[in-house]
Amino acid sequence: MALTLTRPDDFHLHLRDGDVLADLVPPVAERFSRALVMPNLTPPVTTVAAAGEYRERILAATPAGVDFTPLMTLYLTETMAASEIKKATASDFIHAAKLYPAGATTNSSAGVRDVGAITHLFEAMQDAGLVLAIHGELANPSLDPYEREPRFVDEVLAPLVERFASLRIVLEHVSTQHAVDFVTQAGPNVAATITAHHLLCSRRALFAGGLSPHHYCRPILQTEADREALIAAATSGNPKFFLGSDSAPHPRDKKESGHAAAGIYTGYAALELYAQAFAEAGALGRLENFASRFGADFYGLEPNSAEVTLEETSWQPPAEYPLGQQTVVPLGAGESLRYRLRP
Ligand SMILES: [Zn+2]
Fold first, then answer.
1. How far apart are CA 58 and CA 69, in angstroms?
2. Annotated domain spans of the chain
């Protein structure tokens, strides 16, 4: 059986920079019409000018004849001026600004220590209608890693939502029932992305057959009950929940190390991985809205018109993909996937 759907958008993606763009952009551009590209490079993308240059490098790595639009993000810092938000909104290519609590994830050391220090930026974003995308974890190293998202929701997000009642907020890569419940009960200005790996895996996968660094990500994979809550949200038809893969490749040696880097690579077949999760939940008919419509609606973008087709056919991803001079181990290596993109 084949499944044809409107070309989807990925509202949370890491493409990194430099020679790896040639490996990371093509598989995404083949599947997705647009992708919201995260700004956590070194140094981070903190200006409209830097975002514009990064966008050009991504377009240069996009295969000829493929219709793909990178949507850019700004990395919020405590030293950013509100004028940068105004500039971003006036540009036609910046669609969100990203809040990284300092130390919460890869390349987040320049992030925000105290959200009270960027009130001026939240005000500017609310006035201008720029979306705030949030990595929703408290970064305090003394906290239990499984508590970081729930505590962020209660201690940072809830007061923020109350104070900025019309700021459009996306809580990225929700991983817990608690976060799903918060987003569900919040107003229509609050939404969430859900990754394929959080839909497919619980923390069991981290420990199955020995500690697996390739299943380590932030926020960390949670309990089976949390995963079921994410499946329920993604397949509910509630437009607050939409696709953001958070595909986040690291070279193999950075993962298979004494201190494994956080991030899971799904970009080689992200749509197929989502289809697998929806099919397992008996909700394949709900995939199109989740993948191709709800995110665009929230971001105020025109719906896509072209289509992609997935064929139901079992295949095994390779053990690794090229990543510049190195390689990356994909989610699903050594396993069978159920869908494959029709070229
Ligand atoms: Zn991310």
1. 9
2. 2-341
Tokens of 67: 């219709």
- Residue 100 has φ and ψ, to the nearest 5°, of -110, 115
CA 110 distance to own-chain centroid: 19
Those residues whose beta carbon sits under 5 angstroms from the ion ligand 1 are 246
SS percent in the chain: helix, strand, coil, step 5 = 40, 20, 40
pLDDT given for residue 110 in this prediction: 81
Which CATH number is correct for 2-341, 1.10.1060.10, 3.20.20.140, 3.30.565.10, 1.10.10.10?
Answer: 3.20.20.140
Q: What is the Å distance from ligand 1's center to 322 Cα?
A: 20
What whole-number distance in Å separates Cα of residue 79 and Cα of residue 307? 43
Amino acid at 265: Y
Q: Which of 17, 246, 253, 297 is catalytic?
A: 246
| 114-151: pLDDT as tens digits | 999 999 999 999 999 999 999 999 988 899 999 999 99
CA of 98 to the centre of ligand 1 (A): 10
pTM: 0.97
- Distance (angstroms) between ligand 1 centre and the Cα of 13 equals 6
Spacing of C-alpha 53 from chain mean position: 21
Residue with tokens 């969100």: 96
Is 246 tagged catalytic?
Answer: yes
Condensed to tens digits (0 to 9), the pLDDT of residues 237-278 reads: 999 999 999 999 999 999 999 999 999 999 999 999 999 999
For ligand 1, the distance from its centroid to the CA atom of residue 217, given in whole angstroms, is 9
Q: Which two tokens stand for residue 297?
A: 């609606």
CA 132–ligand 1 middle distance (angstroms)? 14
Q: What pLDDT shows up at residue 281?
A: 98
Residue 135 C-alpha to ligand 1 middle, in angstroms?
7
Mean pLDDT of 232-238: 98
